[in-house]
Amino acid sequence: MPRPRFNRILLKLSGEALMGEGQFGIDPDAAAGLAQEIAEAREGHELCLVVGGGNIFRGLAAAAKGFDRTTADYMGMLATVMNALALQNALERIGVDTRVQSAIPMDTVSEPYIRRRAIRHMEKGRIVIFAAGTGNPYFTTDTAAALRAAEMSCDALFKGTSVDGIYDADPKKKRDATRYEALSFQQVLADDLRVMDASAVALCRDNDIPIVVFNIRQQGNLARVLSGEGTATIVQNEE
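Given the sequence above, the corresponding structure tokens read:
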């Protein structure tokens, strides 16, 4: 059964998508490839993005090693700003109008997050990249993505990962893991499937925003999935 085609979409990417073959940081070739995928897929859609910062700094991991949690989370937010600027640069090099809005004000490098301005940018065909999470510690970029999707009145949240959907076990560790075609929010929460953190899933559930999980690393897959084709798992409220 084909998935519905959505118009206004928030795309959530992990920071690792910018690493390429490396183990850390930003690979310009990976950023350029990702930008090309987004540019080719955006036709007919209003698009906004949230990028994680795990390729540079993970606040939760640092807190586990002795960092003050609040300080570590702010450092992680700053890492997402670096990734947003890298992606903006890659997109604009191929002619895609882009705006970065940061939840932590830093006027010399980005716009402040202003909801109405972000919506206007998308209506004009610009891609908006939301940086610095929610601007608050103790919230992940998954939660920031769900929050921005709700604020932007998005039709769906698309999460690009390194696997082609949601499985009943880690497909990288268990070869016979089964992929789900569709799931309810309740099943994701009850079975603790770790698609996104629980607060993000609950926020999408309460605002009736479907989550589509797909493989962003497969060339051309973003365009296929945005058009309602390709391989992915959709999480949505039960009829």
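The helical segments are 28-41, 59-64, 69-93, 115-123, 141-151, 185-190, 198-206, 221-226. Try to locate this feature in the token string yourself.
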